Amino acid sequence: MRATNRLSAKGAAALGPGKYPDGAGLWLVKQESVRGKWVLRVTIHGRRREMGLGPFPAVSLSEARRKADEARATVRNGLDPIRERDRARREAARNLHLLKDIATDCFESRKAELKGDGKAGRWFSPLEIHVLSKLGGMPVADIEQTDIRDCLAPIWHNKAVTASKALNRLALCMKHAAALGLTVDLQACDKARALLGKPRHKAQNIPALPWKDVPGFYASLTDGTVTHLALRLLILTGVRSAPLRFLHLGQINGDMWTVPAEAMKGRRDATQAFRVPLVPEALQVIEAAKAHARDGFLFPSVRKGVISDATMARMMERRGMEARPHGFRSSLRDWLAEATDAPHEVAETMLGHVTGGAVVKAYRRTDFLEQRRVLLERWAGYVTGQSGLVVKMVRG
Fold first, then answer.
1. Residue limits of the Tyr recombinase domain (predicted)?
2. Does domain 9-92 have CATH number 3.30.1060.10?
3. What's the predicted TM-score (pTM) here?
4. Are 85 and 93 in contact (CB under 8 A)?
5. Domain ranges of the chain
6. Tens-digit pLDDT profile for residues 262-282
7. CA nearest to 36, candidates 21, 11, 19, 51
8. CA–CA dist 58, 63 (Å, integer)
9. CATH top class, domain 96-196
């Protein structure tokens, strides 16, 4: 019989990267000195398989041995321990019955589809705040349209966008529950929507400064503070405030700023990083911002982290302006439409928008970098008062 229990808890912790047998098919595989995983090698119906027993050191040596003994016992009974474990997990999932449990399980299943694995909380928050706080403790099978109506009625008209998101995500949770084998009313959310009626609230666009007024505002940003410099770069590049606020020196290479894909709204594919050409005026702003940089971030807040969007907005509020930082994207887009003959695809790409259907996107291999650079140079010249308005694009 092969020797077993070769490892000790203290010895396992001291081992470096490598593969170490404990005996009878149990191995400790360490990728690093401080962490690794437990693997059990078993032969099932003449086929050799490896079964993961959990991470090391979260799963201790004694726990790994206990799991290995259980798996070996399953093999002796002529069953596949991997399949049996998966079946047990499915059974446990079917036993989920409270809405809060279903919602959490649904969120975990959808994380890969969400920007940044949903860490910002924007997917889960509307559901958590406005639905789970009232219905989370109810069995999902008992939830009816009247429950949903009563839950969302207080915000249906005055917070229509948030309420609609909460209802849509609740509908996904109901479908998730049905997929787990639970009996639920898949029409409950649609029925609740009918009971709630059409929201009276109308979505409003974020106020934007007219493009003809941008040069005057840009010229007033002269004190060299983090807020003024951030607003200047926001105007010059046309990016959203989030990637700008989290701009790190490591993202800049010469006259190019590469915004990571996870920082781009609506882009989850790791290959979809967005390149922003940095014109001379933008490079001057970045150089000035380096004096404020902390931990590589160009626009740090006073205490910790980075500057908030609210900080820039409050500065504009104090000046009595209705416009908000995000509105400068509209200012740039209107300038492109009214003062240039930039093609639609180029203008939309400048804002990081993805245009065209699936076929068009599949075949398009360009991000119009050089065309965008020319336009951003003209835009910088316009906002700094150095050039005229009309831009003619050369069509290739």
1. 204-376
2. no
3. 0.54
4. no
5. 9-92, 96-196, 211-383
6. 776 644 444 578 899 999 999
7. 19
8. 10
9. mainly alpha
